[in-house]
Amino acid sequence: MVGAFVVVFLMQLTAWAGEPCGKEAVIKAVEQAVAILEKEGPAGLEKVGQIRFCGDNYVFVNDLKGKTLMHANGQLIGKILIALKDDTGKRFFADFTEVAQKSQATHNGQSYFNGCDWVAYRWPKPGQQSFSPKESYVKGCLMGDTNVYVGAGIYLP
Fold first, then answer.
1. Distance between CA atoms of 18 and 38, rounded to whole angstroms?
2. What is the pLDDT of residue 6?
3. What is the rounded average pLDDT of the residues 132-156?
4. What distance in Å separates the CA atoms of residue 95 and residue 16, rounded to the nearest whole number?
5. According to the model, what pLDDT value does residue 10 have?
6. What is the DSSP letter of 125?
7. DSSP states of 74-114
8. Whether the Cβ atoms of residue 64 and residue 35 lie closer than 8 Å to each other
9. pLDDT at site 19
10. Superfamily of domain 22-155
């Protein structure tokens, strides 16, 4: 009986470990964070900060002016990153805001932006100096009374 359990557990562990970290995992993490923020408002930021997928990948939350409200790197919280550029000069945080503003919805009489899409840019992988291709999925949502966007990204092969 114990042997059968161990075999099933190892099969599940192997199957999970072998799954590639693709765009579906990124979208799922962002949607999970959006659901938390829409339900709990700013109080949900701590829960959102705990979301991890495909190892150490994380989600982040910014307001529409580019101010970081939640990030795995705590030193970025409170920083305005809208003017940040990659090595090609692309202002990808400005692009994140633009994506969020692509569509609009109304909740309890309040209009907010809820656009979503992928943004391609270049960024160094952790521990590296050279820039690598990366894509982040971004979705706008209403966090209490504040319009924000949630994003998460993966490095491309």
1. 33
2. 31
3. 97
4. 33
5. 32
6. P
7. GGGTT-B-TT---TT---HHHHHHHHHTT-EEEETTEEEE-
8. no
9. 52
10. PAS domain (3.30.450.20)
Q: Can you tell me the distance from the alpha carbon of 19 to that of 155, in angstroms, rounded to the nearest whole number?
A: 16
DSSP string, 29-74: HHHHHHHHHHHHGGGGHHHHHT-EETTTEEEEEEETTSBEEE-SSG
What lies within 8 Å, CB to CB, of 155 at 6+ separation is 123, 125, 132, 133, 134
* Closest C-alpha to 121, from 137, 109, 107, 132: 132
pLDDT of 8 strictly over 60: no
**Other CB atoms within 10 Å distance of the CB of residue 60:** 25
Tokens of 104: 């609009």
84: alpha, beta or left? (left if phi > 0; alpha if psi -120 to 50): beta
The answer to whether the CB of 95 falls within 8 A of the CB of 66 is no
Annotated domain spans of the chain: 22-155
Q: What is the pLDDT of residues 69-127, one digit of tens each?
A: 999 999 999 999 999 999 999 999 999 999 999 999 999 899 999 999 999 999 999 89
CA separation for the pair 134, 108 (Å, rounded)? 36
